[in-house]
Amino acid sequence: MATAGKVIKCQAAVAWEPNKPLVMEKIEVAPPQANEIRIKVVATGVCHTDLYHLFEGKHKAGFPCVMGHEGAGIVESVGSGVTNFKPGDKVIPLFVSQCGQCRFCKSPKTNQCEKGWASDRYAAMSELDTRFTCKGKKILQFMGTSTFSEYTVVNEIAVAKIHPSAPLNKVCLLGCGIATGYGAAINTAKVEPGSTCAVFGLGAVGLAAVMGCKNAGAKRIIAVDINPDKYEKAKVFGATEFVNPKDHEKPISQVLHEMTDGGVDFSLECVGNVAVMRSALESCVKGWGVSVLVGWTDLDDFSARPIQLIAGRTWKGSLFGGFKSKDSVPQLVNDYLQKKVKLDEFITHNMTLAQVNSAIDLMKTGGCIRTILSVSPE
Length: 378
Ligand SMILES: NC(=O)c1ccc[n+]([C@@H]2O[C@H](COP(=O)([O-])OP(=O)(O)OC[C@H]3O[C@@H](n4cnc5c(N)ncnc54)[C@H](O)[C@@H]3O)[C@@H](O)[C@H]2O)c1
Ligand SMILES: [Zn+2]
Ligand SMILES: [Zn+2]
Fold this sequence. Notes:
Layout: E1 8-15, E2 23-29, E3 36-45, H1 48-56, E4 65-66, E5 71-78, E6 90-93, H2 103-106, E7 126-134, E8 137-142, E9 151-155, E10 159-161, H3 168-171, H4 177-189, E11 196-200, H5 204-215, E12 220-224, H6 231-237, E13 241-243, H7 252-260, E14 266-269, H8 274-282, E15 290-293, H9 306-310, E16 314-317, H10 325-337, E17 347-352, H11 356-364, E18 370-374
Parallel strand pairs: 4-8, 11-12, 11-14, 12-13, 14-15, 15-16, 17-18
Antiparallel strand pairs: 1-2, 1-4, 2-7, 3-5, 3-9, 3-18, 5-6, 6-10, 7-8
Helix pairs in contact: 4-5
Bound molecules: nicotinamide-adenine-dinucleotide and zinc ion (ZN) (2 copies).
C-alpha cells in the first residue's frame, strides 16, 4: 500500500457555504488515526438529506463540508487498533454508528448508538473532528461519512464490512435511503401480513418503505405523492393504489378513510413536511393504527389533536430504519445478492462525482429516484 500512512490528495465536491453549488476541489485526506479506517469511495447515491442540509435546513453550521452519506468503497488503510478490517475489504460507511458497548447498543430496542457523530448535534449535521483540509482550511465531514470524496476517513464503529462480491455501485444505496425506508416498514411500523398501508412520498425512501410493506405481507399499499410521475415506479415495488392529494378538495386523510373503511393500519411519512406528518397520522385507523415519521425536518414543530392518540393510534419515528447499522447492513447486502430486496430498480441515473450538481438539480425537480455517482474506479 504505497499510500498507507501518508496524506492522500484527491478530488472531492466541497460545499463551501449553504445555497451554493458544490465545487470540485483537490483536498488532503489525513491518514487514519487510532480505530479509524481510510476508505476509497467507489460509488455514492445522492439523498434528500444532502439537499436538505445544503438548501433547506435552518441550521447553517457545519460548513464548509464534504457532503454525501450513501456510499460504498474499499478499505485503503487502517489506523492502529483496527483488527476487523484490512486493505481491500469492501465496506459501507454508516451515518449511524454501532459501538456495541454503549447502553443503546446493548439494548435490542434501539439503533441510537451514543458514540457516533450525531449523538448530540443533529443540528449541525457535520462532525467537528475531521481528516480533511483544502486550501489550508479545515473541511468538515457531513454526517460522519463524506462520500462525495475519492477518499474519506471513518471510525470503525461506523463502517460495515460487506460481501466481497457486492457491486458497490448498487449496494451503496443501503448506506441510507433504502435501509431507511425498508426498515421503517419492517422494524419500526412492524407492518403485519394482510394489512393496509399508506406511504406518503415516493422518493427512494418512500419506495423502499413500499417494498418493506410488500415484503411484510401487506395486502393493500396506497402510494401517496403530489408527483404522478412516481406511480409507475411505485408499482414495481408493490404499491396497489395511488392517490394524488392535489386531485382532491378534501383532506387526504379523509380520502384515505373513505377508501379503507375508517383508515389504514400503518402509514409512513417519507417527505419531511410536518403537515404531511399530521395527515399521515390522521390517515390511520383508530384503535391500532401506527404512523411512522421517516422524513427529516427541523424547520417547524408538528401538531395534532390529542384525541388522535387517545383513540389508540401510535405515532413513532425511525432513524436509519431502526437497523443496528454494523450488524444489519452486511445482512441487507446479502439479501440483495439473494434477490430478497431490490436495489437496481431505484437507480434512474448514473453520473460521475464531477456531475454532482446536475444530480442535485435532478432531485430538486423530482426528475430522478436515485442517481449513482461513480467516484473512483473499483
Ligand atoms: N429518518 C432517516 O433516517 C432518514 C434517512 C434518509 C432520508 N430521510 C428523509 O426522508 C425524506 C425522503 O428522502 P428521499 O431521498 O426519498 O427524497 P425525495 O426528494 O427523492 O422524495 C420525496 C418525495 O416526496 C414527494 N412529496 C413532496 N411533497 C409531498 C406531499 N405534500 N405529499 C406527498 N408527497 C410529497 C415528492 O414528490 C418526492 O417524490 C427526506 O426528508 C429525507 O431527508 C430520513
Ligand atoms: Zn440519506
Ligand atoms: Zn453504541
